[in-house]
UniProtKB/TrEMBL annotation:
<dbReference type="Pfam" id="PF01547">
    <property type="entry name" value="SBP_bac_1"/>
</dbReference>
<keyword id="KW-0732">Signal</keyword>
<feature type="signal peptide">
    <location>
        <begin position="1"/>
        <end position="22"/>
    </location>
</feature>
<protein>
    <submittedName>
        <fullName>ABC transporter substrate-binding protein</fullName>
    </submittedName>
</protein>
<dbReference type="InterPro" id="IPR050490">
    <property type="entry name" value="Bact_solute-bd_prot1"/>
</dbReference>
<dbReference type="InterPro" id="IPR006059">
    <property type="entry name" value="SBP"/>
</dbReference>
């Protein structure tokens, strides 16, 4: 569900002052505790599903009531920090894992109780935990989890004589070159492989997925750059080669043109399944295939996992009640032994982060395209979220774009990006 970036630079100064703010908005009224939950779930099915669970809690717990507050995703971090600075922070926050380091550094998030942290760490997938852990510190309950996979148009590949999705980088390049189509003037009519997504830093997640497939890493535990190693150089050379033969072009929008047959393959996050089903209707089942992102050799594969979490505001006056609600929200059972949160997330086409939910729901998937998306949760590289990770992501994106759009040397671009990464 993460599609667009945020105005991070606007809020960095606010984060620096966040630790000085007063408590959240929770307040008692006639002996009742009123908790507030701030999220970006403002439209269905996300809004309706969360509201339904909150209503169930409120009915069963009359002395602890929860009120949902919603802002657009682009405004979420700014709203969170501005309210925190003004002493009006929500008791419970839903946030993007990439922000975790900044929020933790500014003392916005309360420490997860030890017994609860132990339970969460034993119950959630490595990808989900990695996406919401900064250093050794768990930020809260993992919620949304997305992994990257290779989407492909089955009909376009079949028309070019390709009977199965590529399983190595050589096959990926070969297929991309076979299926690309250009008009008499050289303009792309069908892009072979898209290496970008919507939003800011649009080139980074596809690159990191290929980097993971090669066995590389983005950042070290201390925040230093690790993407300028042989694996990183090989991954960016692959992208450069595809751009060089015009099988990939950053001017083509995959989210707009894949559905109409203008893109043959694209490295995208799993949430895209839900969008494509809506946009393509009956053509989705006949045209869309999903496969793991291949690595350099047969059997190698990679992905990137990013996630959201729900945690408690360090300044909340009702932290105990807030953790009690979050525990119920993420652990109460719905049906077939699956938690309510797991059913809610799966209903939106997202990966349930709890391992037991994932195992149960995977057995009953009615869409084969979801299988590689679910499977990637077991091997995907978690998106780093320590302080400075966003700035490192921006530096890497700028470097990748000089290669894809301007033809710069991959090795030189990565070296330049690595120098721009400043551990915090």
């Amino acid at each position: 569900m993460l599609k667009r970036g945020v105005r991070l630079a606007v809020v960095l100064g606010l984060l620096a002052t966040g630790a000085a703010c007063s408590g959240g908005e929770g307040s008692g009224d006639g002996g009742k505790v009123q908790l507030t939950l701030l999220s970006h779930y403002g439209s269905d099915p996300a809004k309706g599903g969360l509201d339904k669970m909150i209503a169930q809690w409120n009915q069963e717990n009359p002395d602890v009531q929860v009120k949902s507050e919603v802002v657009k995703f682009d405004d979420l971090l700014t709203t969170l920090t501005v309210r925190q600075t003004g002493g009006r922070g929500a008791d419970i926050v839903s946030a993007y894992g990439l922000w975790g380091g900044q929020l933790q550094k500014a003392n916005v998030l309360a420490k997860v109780p030890d017994d609860l942290a132990k339970s969460i760490k034993s119950s959630y997938s490595p990808a989900a935990l990695g996406a919401v852990t900064t250093g050794d510190t768990l930020l809260g309950y993992p919620t949304e989890l997305n992994t990257y996979v290779l989407f492909y148009n089955k009909k376009i590949l079949a028309a070019a004589g390709v009977t199965k999705p590529p399983a190595t980088w050589d096959e990926l390049q070969d297929v991309a070159r076979k299926v690309v189509k250009r008009d008499a003037k050289g303009n792309i009519q069908v892009e072979g492989l898209s290496l970008i997504q919507d939003g800011d830093n649009k080139s980074v997640h596809p690159f990191l997925s290929l980097l993971d497939a090669a066995g590389g890493s983005f950042l070290g535990p201390d925040g230093t750059a690790q993407f300028d190693d042989p694996q990183g150089k090989a991954a960016l050379k692959l992208e450069a080669d595809l751009a060089g033969v015009k099988a990939s072009n950053t001017s083509v929008s995959p989210t707009k043109q894949f559905r109409s047959g203008g893109v043959a393959m694209a490295i995208q996050a799993g949430w895209w399944v839900g969008s494509l089903k809506t946009q393509m209707a009956a053509k989705y089942a006949s045209d869309v295939g999903v496969a793991p992102i291949p690595g350099p050799t047969a059997g190698s594969k990679g992905s990137l996992a990013y996630g959201f979490f729900m945690g408690v505001n360090e300044r909340s006056k009702h932290a105990d009640e807030a953790w009690k609600f979050l525990t119920w929200l993420n652990e109460h059972k719905a049906d077939s032994g699956v938690t309510g949160m797991g059913r809610y997330l799966a209903g939106m086409g997202l990966i349930p982060p709890r391992t037991s939910d994932l195992a149960t729901l995977r057995k009953s998937l009615d869409d084969p395209n979801l299988v590689p998306i679910y499977d990637a949760a077991s091997y995907a590289m978690p998106e780093p979220n320590q302080p400075g990770a966003y700035e490192a992501k921006t530096a890497l994106h700028n470097a990748i774009m000089t290669v894809l759009a301007d033809g710069k040397s991959p090795d030189e671009a990565l070296a330049q990006a690595a120098k721009a990464v400043k551990p915090q």
